[in-house]
Specification:
single chain; 103 residues; alpha+beta; Arc Repressor Mutant, subunit A; 4 helices; 46% helix; globular
Length: 103
């Protein structure tokens, strides 16, 4: 499915939607969550929480898998391992890139 922007979205959202090509709905939704976060760094747990707040309950593995696919495609990058999981362990933090498409 091709990414889309709403009529009321800013011009940059429309440009981004046109540039993304054939992303799945869930991939586009993950990018949308990251874009709304601005420069914030997300752990997988942060991303899952933000995704669920915007799109409703979804399995953790669904969001993690889409994030992995988007990382492989260059839309998301690993910044560091400076995050902390709910269990208190170190974990990776991610952000949106401009390499796989406009931010």
């Amino acid at each position: 499915m091709t990414a889309k922007a709403r009529r009321t979205d800013p011009r940059t959202s429309h440009e981004a939607a046109r540039s993304l090509g054939n992303l799945s709905d869930k991939q586009a939704a993950v990018l949308e969550v990251l874009d709304e976060g601005g420069d914030r760094l997300f752990t997988d747990e942060d991303l899952i929480d933000a995704y669920r707040a915007r799109h409703g309950h979804t399995a953790e593995s669904t969001v993690r898998t889409r994030r992995g696919e988007l990382t492989d495609a260059g839309f998301i990058e690993v910044v560091d391992a400076g995050g902390t999981s709910r269990a208190g362990n170190r974990c990776q933090r991610f952000r949106r890139t401009t390499h796989g498409g406009p931010r």
